[in-house]
Amino acid sequence: MMNLQLCLALLLSIGSLYQITTGAVFMDKLANSKTCADEECSYALSLAIALDDFTAPDCRFISIKKGQMIYVYSKLTPEEGAGVFWSGSVYSERYVDQMGVLGYFPSNLVKETTKFKKNTDTVKIPTADVDFYCL
Question: Which residues form the SH3 domain (predicted)?
Answer without folding.
Answer: 43-115
